Structure to design on (102 residues):
């Protein structure tokens, strides 16, 4: 848990992803298209990825990827991020944490 807390607190936007997950790809593309430079951890490529995935599950991430943290807070997965984007809450949230300067 401490390792995860350190990972999510170091950057304003953190995405936990897997290369094999199409929803992860969609969420990463959304953030990049918005002009955000998120820190992305590919759990199927990094050391201790399985352990981090188990910790994400304990935090309530279901499915475990994509898991998006903004300003150190868990936003959720693809459904939650897309809902925020569609109701125009995502961009103001990104601006508040300094991830976007539009």
């Amino acid at each position: 848990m401490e390792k995860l807390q350190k990972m999510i607190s170091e950057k304003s936007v953190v995405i936990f992803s897997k290369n094999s997950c199409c929803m992860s790809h969609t969420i990463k593309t959304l953030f990049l298209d918005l002009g955000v430079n998120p820190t992305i951890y590919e759990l199927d490529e990094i050391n201790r990825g399985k352990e981090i995935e188990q910790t994400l599950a304990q935090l309530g991430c279901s499915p475990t990827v994509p898991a998006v943290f903004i300003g150190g807070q868990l936003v959720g997965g693809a459904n939650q991020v897309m809902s925020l984007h569609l109701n125009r809450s995502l961009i103001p949230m990104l601006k508040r944490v300094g991830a976007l300067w539009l």
Summary: The chain has five helices and four strands. The two ends are 34 Å apart (CA to CA).
